[in-house]
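Convert to structure. Protein one:
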Amino acid sequence: MLPDIRIRLARYYDELLVDEVQDFAGHDFNFLLELCRAEITVLCCGDFYQHTFDTSHDGNVNSTLHDDITRYEARFDAAGFAVDRDTLNRTWRCSASVCEFITGQLNIRIAAHGIHASLIETIADTERSATLHADNTVIKLFYREHHRYGCYSMNWGASKGLDHFQDVCIVMGSSHWKLLTRQELATLPPSSRNRLYVACSRARGNIYFVPETHLRRFRN
C-alpha cells in the first residue's frame, strides 16, 4: 500500500509540507517517514521543544522518540532529510528579554529578530495577583484546570500556536514556583518544560509569574 500512496503523491503533487512535525509519534512517525520517500519535495517544520501532544500512542513504537533532540534529528538524517537548524531559529513574536529568559532558565535556545525589551516579573504581592486575575487583557496560563479559576485563561500546552497575546500571566504550582525562584526550571521533566516553554513563548510583551496559591481563593 505504501508504494502506491507514494506513487499517487508524486503523480498529483509537487510538494508535501508538514507543520508541527514534532507531534508525530508512534506508528504515525514511521508512516510519515515512509511517505517522505515519494519522488516529490518534502518540507517538515517543527520545534522539538514544543512537543506537547502525540498523534498516536502505540506501545513501545517510538516511545523514546522525543527523549533526546540529537537522536531525534538523526532519524531525519537517516531518512535523507537535510536538517536545517538556522532558517527558523529566530522568533518574530517574543522580545529579546523573553528569549534570554527561555534560553537561560529553560535551557532551550531561542533568539529574537527584534531588540525590544519587555518585563519578566515574579509577583509576590497577593493584591497584584488579584488585579492580574481580573484583567481580561492579560491571558492567565495554568499548568492544568484553568477553567476552575474564573478568569480569562488557558492551560500552558493548549496555548500552542496562538499568536495574539500581548502580556501573559503564567500561573505556577508550588513545585514549579520553587524551581522558578531557585532558577532551576531547566530540571523540569521534558513534558512540563515543553509546556512552560510554549506558555512563555506566547508573549509579545511582558511575562508575569504568579504562584497558584495567590489565585486559589478564586478556584471553584
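Protein two, convert as well:
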Amino acid sequence: MERDLLVEIGTEEMPASFLEPAIKQIKDFSVDYFEKNYLRYSDLKVWATPRRLVIYVEKLKDFQESQEEEIRGPAAHIAYKDGEWTDVAKKFAEQNKADLKDLIIKDTSKGRYVFLKRVREGKPTIEIIQSFVVDMLKSIRFPKMMKWGNVNFTFGRPIRWILSLYGDELVPISVAGVNSSKYTRPPRFYLRSFIEVSDATKYLDILRENFVIVDHIERKDNILKQIKEIAEANSLILDYDAELLDEVNFLVEYPTALLGHFDERYLKLPDIVLKVTLEKKQRYFPLRNEDGNLVNRFIVIRNGTKEYADIVIEGNERVLKARLADAEYYFNEDIKNPLESYTSKLEGIIFQEKLGTIKDKVERVKKIVYEISRILSLSEDETKILVRCVDLYKADLGTLMVSEYPELHAIMGSIYAKISGEKEPIPTIIGEYIYPRTLDEKIPSHYLASLLGIADRIDSLAGYFFLGLFPTGSEDPIGLRRITGGLLKIFLESDIRLSIKELLEYAWKVYGFGESRDRLYQGFIFIGQRLRNILLDMYPLEVVESVLSVDFDPLWKTKRRIAFIIETKKDPNFNSVVKAFNRLYRILPKELTLKEIRPELFVSNYEKKLYEDFVKIKNDLEKDLEKGDYLNLFKHELLITFANDIEAFFDNVLVMSPNEDEKNNRLSLIWNIKTFLWEFCDWSKLS
C-alpha cells in the first residue's frame, strides 16, 4: 500500500533570500534519507512561501523495503568441525536469534568465516517519518539562525505550526515545542485562524481556495503571466532583472499584480537611478515604451487579492514618490560640483579598519597601475588615462547618491564624470572597472577598465590575505570568493599577460607588510582552488588537473595549455604519445641529485638517439614555449619519432646501471625531458 506524505513547517516570515537554498537543502537531505532508509516513492517535491516550507512525497510505501543482510561470525575452523556446528556457532546463532540452518560458510580475504544470512523486515514508514522530520529540520542551515523563547532549537525564523499527514493519518511530531496537527494557517490578510486538511492529496487545493499558492514554481508562473498581461494591455515592455522576479516570488503567498504611476518629472533622472529605485528599493517591475525609454508607470505585486486595489496602489505610489524625490535631490546636489571635488571626502571613508581609508587604497592602486603599465609597456597616453581614472574611480563614494545607493558605485561615477566634462574613455573605464561582479557578468569592454579592475582587486586581495580573512565553509563575509572570481574571469576572457602572483608580491611591498609571506602563499593556494572550481564547470577533470599541476599562473599560459590538451586529444597519435611520455614519471626517485647531461657517457645507441632528438625538439620549441604556442609540439616533425625513442630507451636501456656515472647521466636525461614536457602539462593526469 502507498500514500502521499505531507509535511508543512509554518514559520514567521522568512527573508526571500533564505528560501531557495533551504529548498535545495531539504530536497537533498530528503532524497538521501529516504534512500538510506529504503523508503520507496514515486516523486518528492519541496515548496516554499515566506511562511511555509513544505515536503510532499507522492506514493510513499507504507513499509520500508525488506533488506537482505549478512552478519559475519566466528572463523569457520572453530565454528564447524567434523561436519557439525560447534558450540561457538550455536552461541553466535542464539545471540542473533537465528537457527543453525541460516548459517553459511564463506571465503573472505582474511580466511573462511561463518555468516548469518537473513532478511530484515522493514519498519512501518510512519515510524521513520517522525525522526526524519526532526533530523531534516536540524540539518537546514540559514544565513542567520534564530533562537526564540525558551526552546533549545535554532532555525531561520521561529516555527509556529506543523502540519504532517501520511494520507489521512496524522504523523505525530514535536519540534521546538510545537506539536504537529492536521491544521494549517491561512495568509495573514485572510481572517481565519486555522484550516483543517483532512488528507494530504487535498492540501494544494485547500490552500489555493484559502489564497495561498504553495508551489513556488506555479506562483512564479502566475506572477509572470499577470505582469505580461498588464504590459501588453498598455502597449509597454517589461524590463526587469531575473533576480527581482525570484525575490518577489518568495515575498508573497498569493500574488496580485497592480499598475501604478509616478510623476513624469522623475524621468529626467538617469535611467539606472530610476531602475534601481524601482527594482532594488521598492521591488517594482519597470516598464518601457516601444522606443526603449522608461515610462512613468510600474507594476507592484501585492500579497493578497484585488480587494482594495486602489488603496494599495495609492500607498505604493506615495512611498515611491518619496523615494524618487530623495533621488532627485541627491542627483541635483551632486552635479553642482565636479566629480573630482568628491575625492577629498575619501580620507574619511574607511576601506578596512586595519587597511586604511579609501584614499589610502587609491594611492596604493595608483602604484600598482604604474607597475602594470611598466610590465605591459603601455603608451604614455594610455598610462595618463589610467592614472586619471585611478584619481577619480572611487570619487563617487563621496556623493549623496552613492551614499544612499551603494550599488550604483562606479555607474554614478561614470555619469558624473561625463557631466564634469571628462573625455572618453575615462567615463567608460570608471563605469566598467567593477565588472564582472559575478561569474555571470561580462568583463569590461575597454582594455584599460580591465587593467584598473585587476589593480583594484589585487590591492584588496593582498590586504585581505595579510589579515587572514579567508572564507570558512559557506561563510565569506568579506566577499573574497567574489573578488577572486571577478579577477580570474578577466584573465580567462582576455589575453592580458600579467602574473597574478607577481602583482600580489608587488602589492605586498606597497602595503609594507614586510618579509613574512605565509599568508600570501596561503592566498596563492586559495586563488588556485577558486580557479580549479571555475575551470571544472568548463572542462573535464583530467584536463583541469593536468594543467593546474603545472601552475595556474600566468593565466594566459594556463588558457593556452587547456586549448593545447583539448586540441591534441583529437590527434590520432595522442594516446601513444601520452603513453610514452608517462613512462618518464615512473622511474625517477623522489630525491634526485641532478647533474648535467654528459653525452660522452652514453653507451647505447638508444640513449644517444633519444638525447639528440630531445635537444632538437627542445631547441626548436624554446621560443614557442615562451609565447605559449604549445600546439607546435604536436606539429613537430620529430614528435612520433621522439615518443618512439622514449619507448625504445626504456625497453632496451638499464637506467639504474651498476655504473654510478651512467645511472646518474640517464636519470638526468629523463629528468630534463620530463621538465621540458612539464611546460606543456602534467601528462600523468591524462588518459
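The mean pLDDT is 93. The domain at 339-538 is CATH 1.10.3210 (Hypothetical protein af1432).
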